[in-house]
Amino acid sequence: DQQVKQNSPSLSVQEGRISILNCDYTNSMFDYFLWYKKYPAEGPTFLISISSIKDKNEDGRFTVFLNKSAKHLSLHIVPSQPGDSAVYFCAASGPGAQKLVFGQGTRLTINP
Amino acid sequence: DADVTQTPRNRITKTGKRIMLECSQTKGHDRMYWYRQDPGLGLRLIYYSFDVKDINKGEISDGYSVSRQAQAKFSLSLESAIPNQTALYFCATSEPGTGPNTGELFFGEGSRLTVL
Q1: What values do phi and psi take at B43, rounded to 5?
Q2: B89 and B111 in contact (C-beta within 8 Å)?
Q3: Torsional sign, CA B29, A32, B67, B52
Q4: What pLDDT, on a 0 to 100 scale, did the predictor assign at position A81?
Q5: How many A/B residue pairs have CB atoms within 8 Å?
Q6: Which residue on chain A is closest to B106 by alpha carbon?
Q7: pLDDT at residue B95 in the model
Q8: pLDDT (tens digit, 9 = 90+) per residue, B51-72?
Q9: pLDDT above 80: residue A71
């Protein structure tokens, strides 16, 4: 039972354009959402997060949008850069943030 | 030096062998976790520990055991390895509490295990 789903295994975007990565969740108790970025041969690193009391959080080129009614969040990267090529994991946690549930990941490739 | 260190980084073993993956951290965090990554399945939680005396099963704990030897050390054992335990294993740490980064995990670089 996959509580957090990333339905696109891969995404290819032109450098300079917008990258949009999507994530859906099923557990209505989730109240905190995070995005992690993973390069080959490295562990995932935290990128950006959003609390369920917000619908948008922005950090430089990265913006996360949360639609609670649709149980959907998305990560926007603009403009996309070659260094953004990585696997992106969406994650969610419930009250108390005791542990994270991850999605399957989306491999983003930025083409020059 | 990495804040979360995993050893070994790569290991090839045979079915039925006992394997231990070790994790140590210098972040001073109380919470430690073991995840495994499989293609198409993402990161799945095996075990987690909120302090030295606390051990909890995650979503896929069967076939694994853990030991929290100290605040800084959390090891994962496969008592009798089988091929479907071939995966990339990650140790992670976190701090409890509230705040914008509540629940943020800090990962090690991973241990790639192949069971033949």
Answers
A1: -100, 125
A2: yes
A3: positive
A4: 97
A5: 62
A6: A45
A7: 81
A8: 999 999 998 999 999 999 999 9
A9: yes
**pLDDT tens digit string along B70-116?**
999 999 999 999 999 999 999 999 887 654 456 688 999 999 999 99
The enclosing H or E element of A83 equals none
Tell me the β-bridge partners of B76.
B21, B66
Helix (H, G, I), strand (E, B) or coil at A66: strand
Contact B12, B114 (CB under 8 A): yes
Interface of B with A in 37-76 (CB under 8 A): 40-45, 48, 50, 58
The per-residue DSSP string of B39-72 comes to: TTTEEEEEEEEEETTEEEE-TT-TT-EEEEEETT
Q: What local confidence, expressed as pLDDT, does residue A97 receive?
A: 60
Measure the CA–CA gap between B59 and A67, rounded to whole angstroms. Answer: 26
Bridge partner residues of B112 (DSSP): B10, B88
Backbone torsion region of residue A3, taken as left when φ is above 0, otherwise alpha when ψ lies between -120 and 50, otherwise beta: alpha
Record: contact A99-B48, CB cut-off 8 A:
yes
**Nearest chain B CA: its distance from A62 CA (Å):** 16
Contact by Cβ (8 Å): B12, B111 = no
Side chain identity at residue B69, one-letter code: Q
Look at residue B110 and give its three-state secondary structure: coil
